[in-house]
UniProtKB/TrEMBL annotation:
Record organism: Rubrivivax albus
Matches recorded under InterPro entries: Rhodanese-like_dom, Rhodanese-like_dom_sf, Thiosulphate_STrfase_CS, TST/MPST-like
Protein name, entry field: Sulfurtransferase
SUPFAM superfamilies: Rhodanese/Cell cycle control phosphatase
One family name in Pfam for this protein: Rhodanese
Gene Ontology MF, one: thiosulfate-cyanide sulfurtransferase activity
Source organism phylogeny: Bacteria, Pseudomonadati, Pseudomonadota, Betaproteobacteria, Burkholderiales
PANTHER family xref list: SULFURTRANSFERASE, THIOSULFATE SULFERTANSFERASE
Domain Rhodanese residues, every copy: 19-138, 169-280
UniProt key word Membrane: no
CDD domains, per database record: TST_Repeat_1, TST_Repeat_2
Amino acid sequence: MDTYRTLIDVEALAARLAASAPTVVLDCRFDLADPSAGEAAYEAKHLPGARYVHLDRDLSGLKTGRNGRHPLPERVALAAWAGRMGIAPGVQVVAYDDQGGPYAARCWWLLRWLGHEAVAVLDGGFSAWRAAGQAFEDDEPAPLTGTSPYPAAAKPAMPTVDADALQSALGRVRLVDARNGARFRGETEPLDPVAGHIPGATLRFFQDNLVPGGRFKPAEQLRAEFDAWATPTDRVVHQCGSGVTACHNLLAMTHAGLEGSALYPGSWSEWCADPARPVATG
């Protein structure tokens, strides 16, 4: 069967499951305001065979108070987790959420960072699966036994930049902020102690990648919108509040055929934790 590396639609996923094609389905539903909500929703109903993935426990590392709200996990820990999920080279992974794709995109990016290419986000997520009349389950799959850590690539397969490198590059890269306009302008800040944005950043709210109903825009439309920046892909850096919704913009660019842009994992929550770093508003 086909391998999916960015998005997969409901029909294609349903066909894989019906054919018992090797597929790992990951439920990434999450709510920043209520970290237990996604797991509770999973326990009530989820896609067949799906295993739950928690943003804080599984897709983030240890917080120090200076490295952002969702720092990257250590690659060794991520590889061990991936193995426990049944992920192995060549096995198709499908991640989904019910919030337009940001948490599933974080899972997608992390697995690509680890070196796993056969990973895609379910276009339209949980809602699209439900709207298509597909089946759900409420029982949790048994833990896998005898698994091995994922054989991660020797070097990270997706580029990142840290705060110091980004600050030194301001004005020479296009920094793209995936937060909403009110947070970007500093009019409100519900999650971090300082409001505003990194000087010179471009606003690209992650939901601008979607059409009404929650599916991604066609690749050609996304390509035209990103091409309007007139910036080489390797000079684009993505950030958001904590390195999560930025992955949505990275997924959209990759789906549009524009690979090679970087993630600033610490994002605004790390940046604003250092009072010496510049802040802009408006």
